[in-house]
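Teaching assistant here, posting this on the class forum so everyone can see the example we discussed in section. The complex has four components, and the goal was to see what a joint structure prediction looks like when all of them are supplied at once.
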Amino acid sequence: MGEVIYNRIAMLRAERGISRRQLADALKVHYQTIGYLERGEYSPSLYLALKIAEYFEVPVEVIFSTKPFPRLGSEDVHRGRRADISGA
Amino acid sequence: MGEVIYNRIAMLRAERGISRRQLADALKVHYQTIGYLERGEYSPSLYLALKIAEYFEVPVEVIFSTKPFPRLGSEDVHRGRRADISGA
DNA sequence: TCAGCATATAGTACAAGTGCTACATTCAAT
DNA sequence: ATTGAATGTAGCACTTGTACTATATGCTGA
């Protein structure tokens, strides 16, 4: 079983401007379930994770990870592209 | 919750010649758990699914799907490549 | 102001995932 | 022939995921 799983559901939702209820309805789960997931109170079943990834049209790993996601603007996000900014 | 989830754990194992026990040990789960998964008695938690994908070094979707995987040699596997065989 | 939406908290109930133990079968190697 | 590995079956205990209900808060728009 499981260590913690980090997710970017809230981010994806925000990016696309949809509410928990809307997402929940689309996925046909209870809207509180989305809340639990976003707050990290538990992580979804694989089935639900696949559905969520399908809904957002991204691979599962883009939304869920066993390791925390880097923040936007951090080094990790710009891997191999740092020169573009640092001016080389 | 969940409809059935199909997986290719047994295939991946076979391909790489490792036993359930070996896989289970590598993932630090009980070896019976792998059996349950392969037999489809239940599907893994997202945490375990991520671990399995990581172990086999493939995206989650390559191993798990809400729809049955096409058999090797079926049309779906050769999408856009059928002409190579049919001789056009 | 009030209505309604989005979110958080809490609690109950049930289903599903995992660990573990024991035992049966099949097969390969000695 | 016996041993040991890989697999299948069965059952029990415990944890986690999901549904659902109720209640509270804050924000926004009529």
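For the discussion questions: Residues 17 and 44 of chain B are 22 Å apart (CA to CA). Residues 1, 19-21, 31-32, 35, 39, 45 of chain B lie near DNA strand D (CB under 10 Å from a C1'). Think about how each of these relates to the inputs above.
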